Amino acid sequence: MEFSGNVGEKGYALEPRSAVIFLGTGCSNSVPNARCLIQPSDPPCQVCLSSLSLLPDRNPNYRSDTIGLQMNRCNTSLLVDFCGRDGEHHYVLIDVGKTFREQVIRWFTFHKIPRIDSIVLTHEHADAVLGLDDIRAVQPHSPTNDIAPTPIYLTQEAMDSVGMKFPYLVQKKLKEGQEVRRVSQLEWKIIENDCKKPFVASGLELVPLPVMHGEDYICLGFRFGENCKVAYVSDVSRILPTTEHYISESNGQQLDLLILDTLRKEGSHNVHFCLPQSLDAVKRLRPKRALLIGMSHEFDHHKDNEFLREWSTREGIPVQLAHDGLRIPVDL
Ligand SMILES: [Zn+2]
Ligand SMILES: [Zn+2]
């Protein structure tokens, strides 16, 4: 029931295989939770405390696979390192949240990720898009913005909202008298929230998986991989029937890996799955294995993975909490 592909010593960028790399596995607030640290509860929250004791400036093993690091969770984001038929690596980034810069510093360096080739957005909430300004840090430097823009795939609804949040990233031409300022160069590409409308990002075909993220809001997950079938659903409170059919084992398309939202350990939440709903969904969809993401500070990585190991043995489907920096080789 153990997952291979935990963080290794060397990084894997030259390995001739595709992989998914978990750049972030935490909720919108991230972990540690700031309020937990400045107004500690009694007794204090051990999860947040352990991440504090291992903050980068005090932690000589900043990038090592330590207990504290597994409690340190940035906004949900996945990097698909797609090794195409040409043998070249193509880097497809899903979501660019508030913590993107920290994720680059921690994990792009560790896993030797040299650039981003395309970006895919699940939706336009702060924890999925507020790092777009920092995309320029992973683009070639040009004082005049004279570089090839990075394609970014998003729905029209997300585009409308991102245009209001970042007008300077959407603006095509400088107005008269406006100085050139260096900003992320993005090529906006509209996708549909429809399982039947796949699109291709840097050679990788992705199928949009519309799901409810609160009953007033549709968010996208994505299914990708021809050989190893992966579905990524980071923000969900209810899986729509068409999407459920598309990714369930009963459709004859059993997923090799399901990556699924889980915000809290108990109860339910109006806009996210909590553990009971996530495990119910795993039982219905029956993937070969599942990894959970989006966890708040209620989750203790090691303790809760113990519980999940027992659950997995009982139900016959391996399920574990993912952690930031986790790299899983997959044959896409
Ligand atoms: Zn806490
Ligand atoms: Zn959201």
What's this entry about, in short?
It holds the Pfam family Lactamase_B_2. Residues 73-297 form the Metallo-beta-lactamase domain. The chain is built from 10 helices and 15 strands.
Number of strands: 15
Main β-sheet: number of strands, strand sense, barrel status? 8 strands, mixed
Mean pLDDT: 90
The CATH class assignment is Alpha Beta
CATH architecture: 4-Layer Sandwich
CATH superfamily: Ribonuclease Z/Hydroxyacylglutathione hydrolase-like
Ligand types: zinc ion
Structural class: alpha/beta
Looking at the structure, what is the overall shape?
globular
Compute the number of helices.
Answer: 10
Note down, in words, how this protein is organized:
This protein has 332 residues and is an alpha/beta fold. The protein has helices at 34-38, 46-52, 67-70, 100-110, 126-129, 156-165, 167-170, 241-247, 275-285, 301-315; strands at residues 19-24, 77-83, 89-94, 118-120, 150-154, 186-190, 199-201, 204-212, 218-224, 230-233, 238-239, 257-261, 290-293, 319-321, 327-329. Strands 7, 8, 9, 10, 11, 12, 13 and 14 form an 8-stranded mixed β-sheet that branches. The longest helix has 15 residues, at 301-315. It starts with 18 loop residues before the first strand and ends with a strand. The relative contact order is 0.17. Residues 123, 125, 213, 235 line the site of one zinc ion. Pfam families: Lactamase_B_2. It comes from Rhododendron simsii.
